[in-house]
Amino acid sequence: MPRSRRDIVALAMAIALLPTAARAHDPDVAGGLFRSRDAGANWLAISPGIFVSGALALAISPQEPNHLLLGTDSGVWRSRNGGRDWEIEAPNILTGPAFAAAFDADGGRALVAGASTLFRDDGDRWRSVPTPAGAAPARALVAASVPGRVYLAGRSGLYRSDDWGRSWVSVGDALPARHVDLVMVPPGRPDDVYALAGGAVWSSSDGARTWKPRSEALADSGIEAVGIDPSNPALLWAVRAGQVMRSDRPGERWRPVGKAIPEGPATARAIAVLGDVFVIATDRGVFRSSDGGERWEPPKESLPAHLRAEVLVRDPRSPATFYSGFALAAYEDLQQRAPPVGSTSARLGWGSMAGGFALIVLFALGAIAGVRHVVRSRRRARPERGAERVENRTISQVNG
Asked: What is the pTM of this model?
């Protein structure tokens, strides 16, 4: 076999045999999940260490704060000890990217949003549940503090379920945007909901049945993230063009606080506030201020440098414990690759399909090489057999 062909076959074999779910974790390249116990002052990597390239969603059980569900771009992982140890969840069912995850208020059930459907765990096994038309893949799953109630911000639309995903009702028709970027339910107030849609903040006090605008005082709102300080839930916080905004009345009388994030514009993904500490997850990493936004610390050296922070979640029982997750590919990139609902590729992970394709290439190249080898062997054998026949005739004549 020629050297070039041997090289191609070797390359295809290497690709096919790559462990798609067992790569070493490199936070600067592949993103990952990190935890801080001191409101973002210090961070510790707690990733499973073997997922492909990013953390997309994190759910924390409200009953067991060390019980975590991590959605990545290549499956779902579960930890029951705060991220020290991880186990892959239903690898034959929860394949491909997991865009959102949530625990029920009682901690006994969970939901995960895959590329084309939702999956529900009742404590025994994962099963698919109906997904509202046009909602997959989901942007967010947010549970309220009453068992069974969960909000789904979809690829388009906003929906609520009161039976933990068995049925859904649309609750976002009054909102002025095709999709909702963020849903927030204040702790202990299950009927209060905040939504960020089209750069504007909206609130509901009746379980998302009716909505009121909360950012009209900000011309051309352009709000990118909204948050609440658990130590003072009467205040509402937001980020616009890198500037933290505060409303002493939920959604009214907004005013800037501190200075904007330095080093040029950064698009905020989420904000966490604890007293004078601001932590903002952006498309350029995580920024922190410990003095109400007067001075900003650049992203920590222990975090991925200038990588998009997709996750910023607070421990419901420990206000100073934050989790931050990073990913190479954003939701917008991954959802464009999401297959149509019900397609065969929806049930296969991207890593599995890549490995399968590489195997097909390998077998095809091997078959071609084998056929050519046989043909060449036969061609070489023909003159040898002809010469043998001539030699036999010559011997016969001599003997005759």
From this structure: 0.77
